[in-house]
Amino acid sequence: MTDLLPVGRARGSLVKQVSEELRAEIASGRFSVGDKLPSQSHLTERFAVSRTVVREAVASLQADGIVESHQGAGVFVTARTAPAAFAFQSIDPARISSILETLELRAAVEIEAAGLAALRRSPQQEEEIFRTHNVVAAQIARGERSNEADFAFHRAIAAATNNPRFAEFLDLLGQAAIPRFAIQTNGAEAVRASYLDRILDEHRQIAQAVANADEAAAREAMRKHLKGSQQRYRALIQANTP
Predict the structure, then answer these.
(1) Per residue in 62-97, pLDDT tens?
(2) Beta bridge partner(s), residue 75
(3) Burial 95-121 (b: 16+ CB within 10 A, else e)
(4) Closest Cα to residue 103, out of 226, 219, 17, 192?
(5) 210, 161 contact by CB (below 8 A)
(6) What's the pTM value of the predicted model, to 2 decimals?
(7) Is 64 in contact with 26 (CB distance < 8 Å)?
């Protein structure tokens, strides 16, 4: 069959229709995990659409991890449904309440991570912690955004636990873990400078406690840092509430 269908919205609607029908059949068990989907020519005839529509519909399923293409063998079902949307995708860095929720969760994990890092860090990991701290300091001194470097500092602490799950947790949060945008772009310059100086001092205390192998001090320094951030954002809520 040649592609006689118009491009754009019409074809997009057909792609959606075909992909949704295939999803429903896979979810219902008509096609089980491991089964091979019918050939492209068979699906083209069955749905009375072009090969282009079928290819795009199957590509949509593949992108969602429901099917997998094996060159020369066909397309096989790998899951009955697409994985559920990851909960952390709902983090909204523009909402202070969302930032506070994230900071509370980070505190529950990163205070423990700091203590473990103090006990388990290697010389190379200790060096990485101070290197990332120095990058943050240099970027702040130049007036640059330092969110990415800040994230790298916290991830270096997590990695120094030598338990990969701590670093994986921060990777799942991503840049939403460092919600400093609102304070970096709003407010008086003096307030911003004071805030960033405080962040640097808190980072330094965490790094030093880890380097000293002082588990209790590392936990307390991280607790002070993350709880202090919560207090600063709660103050923003009060300041912005009529």
Answers:
(1) 877 889 888 888 999 988 876 654 556 666 666 777
(2) 69
(3) ebeebbebbebbbebbbebbbbbbeeb
(4) 226
(5) no
(6) 0.61
(7) no
